[in-house]
Design goal:
- Two copies of one chain form a homodimer.
- Chain A is α/β, with parallel strands linked by helices and about 450 residues long.
- Chain A has two domains: about 110 residues, Urease, subunit C, domain 1; about 290 residues, TIM Barrel (Alpha-Beta Barrel), CATH 3.20.20.140.
- An eight-stranded mixed β-sheet of chain A has the order 3-2-1-4-13-14-15-16, with helices on one face.
């Protein structure tokens, strides 16, 4: 029988498809054609079945679905480490918000997003959700670098460099949604910032529009105790109750943070099929509280994973985030069997895809899904011994070990290097930003 | 004036001496002579003052004191990832203890310790405390690879391959202490395993001997709720009260884990100058509880940092451990200002030196201290921007970025490679162990 021609054939020591769960395929290969996974089969059989102009033999590597970062603010990567170890309100009021007012522009968002995309690709992330000002620029950068993205139009009642009021945020957002209506890698959703920054009226409008456009809604929710207390004081409702009253609870809703949850909250999430986006490192760093993910998953609620912005993390490494999530869940639930490694990997892949409404095409390595693939090289002495590659990926590696990344079959990282992003030029721009921002910050802190 | 000759001159972009606290020296150099730090001064001045046969120009690097891993079981690195995501008692009873009974031998300890030393050096650790069977082999390996170590003679009432009863453990341990009495890098202390495995009689003997020999005592203590409950049930005392009654609480005592602490416990630790060794990743992974380190440090108690064994971590990366410690402390204390980056760095360096009783010679970069030094290369795009190198080291890097390591002035890691350990040969041995252990474990699990 003649061999079938494919675009790429990736052989690997271990392939971890994520679906079915906790499965490791030894010495298998993935055949890719027209950006899709055509077949996953034994390596020897693959060589007999397929011929390919591009063949990769990753003899010491584990291959997983591309990681999905379900919550972040890409351009804030330019503020990485600008202000650490501060109480939340001082961090926001005296550092982050003044810095945003001073610096955020289309140029800032372009360079910051490019830096974030570089870091995400190099650490194995192939798809990210983003919520920030100038989402048009974020989308442009994602398009340029061929990374998959779900980009939120930011919506709040307060003015920023991007828009003056909720109406303008929505107006500009809808135009952006229209621009990307048929894009293969990018889709636009609604990003009401938080319950305390968006009015009932705007939330109602968002509900109607999201239903009409079948678009996701992404919101910071139940992030801190203070948020709940203020909401109860001002309106007599917990934020989740308020969203329920407005009709926003649905499988289209992505609830980010969720560190303050009672039994009724969990019931509401479960009954309405809402998704929870867990950001453990940011929640720890800002002392926001603990999201009870073991309890949520036991209730059948889909929990995905996000790094949040680099200003409160301080990196965009999803393998590191999955380790933190798996460890923290055990401590918080007081059960060492909670969130095993394979479940943490699901949070960073298929659960992210479900939350973003993209699980028909990404999140696992299966025939007919998009070839969004990450390879991690485990050839070093310090990667030994390996008894279970899934455990090893979650507990003993980090993004630094990612060697190859494909999105829709296109190779974007090869041997740990970006294939088509000029890192030198970008590094130069980032250092320029750092110098400008640092001088201004120092001047400001001298004033106080 | 003629230039003074030194052995090595290390120029670096940033030098972080740890003492004084939270200080960063820009474009400075360290002059090393006969294994000691002779001087730390401005780079330009250094070139005018000193000539050196070996000069390093680390233009994109941060230099810190060598990291000190204050609690571990080096040879258990061969069990890395053998059994994860299990409740503590099932992990111990059904996996770790049977595997130890089956595998632990002088050969196992030699190869496992060598693997751990390689991983520790490559991730910037220059000194480690160790508690395990065959401490004579651990000491031999530390000596061979010229890494600094404080090695505990294990003491418990139960037989193992190393000794039959407490008397024999102590007898063999004292002989080992004698062998290393005058060693420049290695010292031997007392390692009673835990309150529940060592009798009052043995603990009293250890107190007398430790006083006599001026040696440290290192013990797993208040690790789990169950430990406290059992102790109260059996003897009516909390373990710390029992150690107090026996007279073991002193600045010589290293209390490892300490996740269960009430106000009286904290007072006892504080009044007696005991050290706490915090192992956050192991405590999380085994769901042991949370050590309240912010509260301990507020009370003036010295808190050092350890990875614990790789079987419950699953790596020996002290920079990663410091990040986890800094983040977790904020979550647990509900204060985002708790344990700032510079304090986390102190835990991993000078606090470790204090706990080990070695702070006169290591733990900070100061004239007349030993030249135990770690350099981290921050030249990559994803290391940008850097506003504060200390924050960057704790929150945004990991051991993978360590480029150079010196112990007592001797270069042991250069450009991320070990200078004098044959990693290929070692990797081959480790894979052999993995194959043997994995087959036996699989057979065993099929039996049940």
């Amino acid at each position: 029988m003649p061999k079938q021609t494919v675009d790429s054939l990736i052989h690997a020591k271990w392939i971890i498809p994520v679906n079915p769960n906790n499965r490791v395929l030894l010495n298998h290969a993935i055949a890719i054609k027209q950006g899709l996974i055509l077949d996953i089969l034994d390596s020897t059989l693959a060589d007999k079945t397929y011929k390919s102009s591009k063949t990769y033999r990753l003899d010491s590597h584990a291959i997983i679905p591309g990681l999905i970062n379900a919550h972040g603010h890409a351009s804030m990567t330019l503020f990485r480490g600008l202000a650490d170890d501060l109480p939340l309100m001082s961090w926001l009021n005296n550092h982050i918000w003044p810095a945003e007012r001073r610096w955020v522009s289309d140029e800032f968002v372009a360079d910051g997003t490019e830096l974030a995309i570089a870091e995400m690709l190099l650490s194995g992330t192939t798809c990210f959700n983003d919520m920030y000002f100038y989402p048009n620029i974020t989308a442009k950068m994602a398009h340029k670098h061929k990374i998959r993205a779900q980009i939120m139009m930011p919506i709040l009642e307060f003015p920023s460099a991007w828009a003056d009021n909720a109406e303008e945020y929505i107006h500009k957002g809808l135009a952006l949604h229209d621009d990307y209506r048929n894009h293969d890698l990018i889709n636009i959703g609604f990003g009401p910032h938080a319950p305390y920054t968006v009015s009932d009226e705007s939330l109602e409008r968002i509900r109607v529009l999201a239903d009409e456009l079948d678009a996701v809604v992404h919101i910071h929710l139940h992030e801190t105790e203070q948020e709940i207390e203020e909401a109860l004081r001002q309106g007599g409702e917990r934020p989740l109750q308020r969203l329920d009253r407005i009709g926003l609870l649905s499988p289209r809703l992505q609830c980010v943070h969720m560190t303050q949850l009672n039994k009724e909250d969990i019931n509401l999430l479960q009954e309405n099929g809402c998704h929870v986006i867990h950001c453990p490192e940011s929640n720890l760093k800002l002392a926001s509280g603990f999201c009870p993910i073991a309890q949520l998953m036991d209730a059948g609620i889909n929990v995905a994973l996000g790094t949040d912005g680099a200003a409160s993390n301080n990196d965009l490494d999803m393998l590191g985030e999955a380790k933190t999530a798996a460890l923290l869940a055990k401590g918080v639930s007081r059960n060492a069997a909670s969130v095993p490694a394979h479940q943490a990997l699901r949070m960073a892949t298929i659960n992210g895809a479900k939350a973003l409404g993209l699980d028909a095409s990404i999140g696992s390595l299966e025939a007919n899904k998009s070839a969004d693939i990450t390879a991690i090289n485990l050839n070093q002495l310090i990667d030994q011994p390996i008894y279970d590659p899934i455990s090893h990926l979650i507990y003993s590696t980090c993004g630094q070990k990612v060697s190859h990344v494909w999105i829709k079959g296109k190779l974007l990282v090869e041997q740990g290097e970006l294939t088509s992003l000029d890192t030198k030029a970008l590094q130069y721009k980032v250092v320029e930003w750092r110098d400008k921002i640092r001088i201004a910050e120092n001047q400001q802190s001298m004033q106080f």
